[in-house]
Amino acid sequence: MSPSLSTCSVGQRASEPVVTSWSLLQEGSHGPWTALSEDDKYWARRRKNNMAAKRSRDARRLKENQIAIRASFLEKENSALRQEVADLRKELGKCKNILAKYEARHGPL
To answer: Which residue of 63, 74, 81, 104 is 20 to 30 Å from 47, comparing CA positions?
Structure first.
């Protein structure tokens, strides 16, 4: 990008180009604000990326919390089902004992 030249001012030699901030703004292949906005573009991209990263972290944290809650629920359910199985096995043992006593007195069914 070559800066635009303006006329020389008082006390300046005619061979020296004068570069103004306006001339920098006017030049550029991407529009009039290219020279001053590259830094702004960078920071806009950084802000956008930071917000996306925060959303990603928040989503991951939410998903991890949901998984932890689900795991806790499943552990409690598993414990309750194991207790139910133990109770049913105990009841089955009692029933088998009653049946064995009955068959001992009255013969097989």
So the answer is: 63
